[in-house]
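Form 12-C: Joint structure prediction
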Amino acid sequence: MKPAPFGYADPTSLDEALSVLESEGESAKVMAGGQSLLPLLSMRLASPTTLVDINRVPGLDAVVVGDDGVRVGALVRHVGLLHHAGAAAVQPLLARATANVAHPAIRNRGTTVGSIAHADPSGEMTSVLALTGGSVTVATPAGSSAVDWADFFIGPLETSVHGPAVVIDAFFPALPARTGTAFEEISRRKGDYAVCGAGVTVTLDHDSRVTSARASYISVGLVPEVHDLTEAVVGQSADTADWAAAGALARTLVDPDGDLHASADYRRLLVGVLTERTLARAAQEAQNR
Amino acid sequence: MTTKLMGEPVRRREDLRLITGRGRYTDDIGHGALAAAFVRSPYAHARITGIDVDGALDVEGVVAIYTYEDLAGPMAEPLPVLIPHPQLTAPRTGFPLARDVVQHVGEAVVMVVATDRYVAEDVCDRIVVSYEELPVVVGVDASRAAVHAVHADVPDNVAARHHQETGDVEAALAASPRTLSFTQYIERSACMPMEGKGVHAVWDADDSSLRVHTSTQASTSVRAAIAAKLQLSLEKVEVVAPDVGGGFGVKIVHPWPEELLVPMAAIALGQPVHWAEDRREHFISSAHEREQRQEITVGYDDEGRVTALDVRAWHDNGAYTPYGIIVPIVTATQLVGPYAVPVYRVRIDSVYTNTVIVTPYRGAGRPQGCYAMERTMDRIAQDLGLDRAEVRRRNLIGKDQFPYDHHLTFQDGRPVIYDSGDYEGLLDKLVALVGWDRAEERRAEAASRGKQLGIGMAMYVEGTGPGPYEGGHVQVLGSGKVLVSTGLTSQGQGHETAFAQIVAHELGVPIEDVEVTTGDTRRFGYAVGTFASRAAVMSGNAIALAARGVRAKALRIAAEILEADVEDLEIDEGVVQVKGTPGTAIPLRTVAVLSNPLRYAFDEAARQATQFAGPGDDSKPPVAVGDAPGLEHVDYYSPIRSTFASGAHAAVVEIDPTTWEIDVVDYAVVHDCGTIVNPMIVEGQVHGGVAQGVGGALYERMAYDSDGQLQNASFMDFLMPYASEVPDVVIDHQETPSPLNPLGLKGAGEAGVIPGTACIASAIEDAIGLRIAAMPISPTELYDLVRSPDAERVPAAIPGVPA
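Section 2 - Result
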């Protein structure tokens, strides 16, 4: 379990990072927290020619909170979002989801943007980016541009970004008014990848009737998906809505795979259970926002 | 009076070192050494058709590449069968490097030695081994079917047919008022010590001697194996087990191929060579345990008393049998547990599969036996509508029935005769400890929270401390330091503390003066090893006897000096004194100086001692015939047979009927290991055992696919419980001393794991009212079970057990 030989570059500016990536070609790999990448290297499941370590690039470590949302720099560790009260106020899903990311040691080192760029459907933050309708900023030698989440995730561990590029931040839009959120995972052991996880938002009108109910799941599809469950509960009161019906609807919308830890059927069961539980909590929260 | 030490919760003296990163493990030794790495078979069953190393030879830093062709003499022969048995009629072992056929994924084919491990793995990547794939056999049922053979010359795949019986079971079953039969499975797990295996070898060409550090549970035997296989004289080989980061059984197997190959390379290359096993290697090339299919028929009367028991089982021994059939024998003989079974027959076939070898993992066949017997007790209770505790009580061996002879032959070839115990006492304590009689109340309370609560129990008897022997050496230095050494090894059990307690107690010295060394063949050459819950029983007693020898000699010398009778002397706080006469005393360290008539006064201790030295008796030699200089003694303890510890566990589980998650909310243990040296250490052993029991019941399995590929060979997918998954454990002790050994000890190392699977299966069954026929069980499988339309409500496809 030792990596194959690889080159290492530690650029001190974004331009330098991009120029190294440009000269090294497709087999160079950007490293931020390294929590997923380095085990792949050690098991020789990945053998990049060069690791471009962006930890010394200035300006990528900020959490910028605005009225419209939270912009998270590429070097912000999960723990930085977990304990960021300002970010949580604008978009509560950030702290709720990062609390479910692995264990403290991994949260201390792993980055939220790195996790998104890794595009693992078992990752929490890919799902949250989707649910919030977020985007990432991709820097290339030709300049930077925003890429919407739906255009970013192509498949498991695969994004639409190719060639010399660094994902320099992720933007999570603010939670709309009268909207509540909830996030819950079921894992075999505390801190493991979720067998199934759910993040949801519920929006109410001024009479506390449901106008929107949306969910995104962890470890359920090949790429993050957002499912609109509103039709099952639209117009119903937050206190008495038929959340089980929303759960039942969710079960028909997902297409999970089975693996060593859960059959597809079991995952579908959990999608229903978690949907029902989280929507009910989110609706309660929405009444107070 | 010296502070009481035996039976006290003395804090483990080794822990500061071990938990602050100051332990010295094999991988901490010899950083300048060359590194070995292995090319291992990617196929479960294949013939090697070629090995091409051409592309590897130009990697910078490669030093040597070895294949089977490079093995000479005894190294080219199959690895030894450590424990032959007449019923092991088709033993098979591999070669240190595969010769022509590989029998499991992970079998070593090529050894590479390079300047460091990175380079060694680069070299491995460039070696091309060609294979012709052969049919693969995975799982006991496929092995039984014998459509394909693992070993071409063993067409039925049966390595051994183990068979014991205590009477005519068929007649007894026919005469039984009631009988029932059922089939159940238990899957594989593995030891998974934090530290994998590791070997470091240094050849001293000038001295023609070899020093090997290895992460082993049996350094003396590794030494003998290396000497034999590499054709070295025993005194030219030293083997040291430094700090060992857990063993749990896997490191009692020896010699591992690497323990021979690494020293072989060190000698050939004239340079130190080092190998540290990585986790993937540990998964696919060390050892697993536990997989069995069990068919049980029990006869009983209307009161639930067992009249006859017939067990037919198949035990998956993996690809080879280097450790003989110890595991199935232990299952066969320990299965009956604390119960009187009038007629018992057990037949276990030990069968080959194209998987990693199966050798003892903590419990070593006992968890499977306990699972068979305890689930039988539950079945009887269900059938008769009786309380499960009551059925057990009616079958227990009575307190007045010891010694109790089961008329079975144990793993050590000795009779299974229980030396002492009080099983009803255990059951009474357990029922009280877990609140067995409040189960219905709790079930209702849990139901009000939407949870299904269940309670289960399991009892066991564990043969511990098998022989043939262990030894101890105790020596008092002129400084007052007391050196203690024993040949068996330590893997975290707290021997530095427990053995020091025994010596401090026996000798009457402060524990701070006692220094314990284990597993170092330079210090003690004769030993068996640390396994089978035997260290405290075997070395503990040997060390006690050695300390008593030292004490006797010290008193004899002191009696002369103090002009007192030996009977009037005592040793307290390291001072020999006349009882009741303070001041008439001599420090033990001074006695140590005086025990050696050659006294160059190099130090203050020697100078002080001269004041006690008499003129000497000109008519006698300075060292009397039969005496020896120095204050030291070696002694051995060799038991007539094993001593039998016992215990009872209960688990309370809560199941969420929406997600089928299983939560062990309470876990109670009553434990009897005879006289307790250190209750804190015993409880630590129990806690660790329970953690592994929970793992085996709910989380851990070796997920082989039908091609023999292990699908979960990493800690990401092989789920050992974290602290967050292990329940708090409440413990009550019972002390029934063993009459067989001087200290009255019984082993404690493995007990905690034995009843876990049986007890948790019982609790889950109680919670959901459906039969659990395969363990471990996970929420996804429980969900399958509750949806099963099967009339018997047994899972149609046994989860995780390949067909």
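Section 3 - Comments
Residues 535-562 of chain B form the longest helix (28 residues). Chain B touches chain A through 29 residues (CB under 8 Å).
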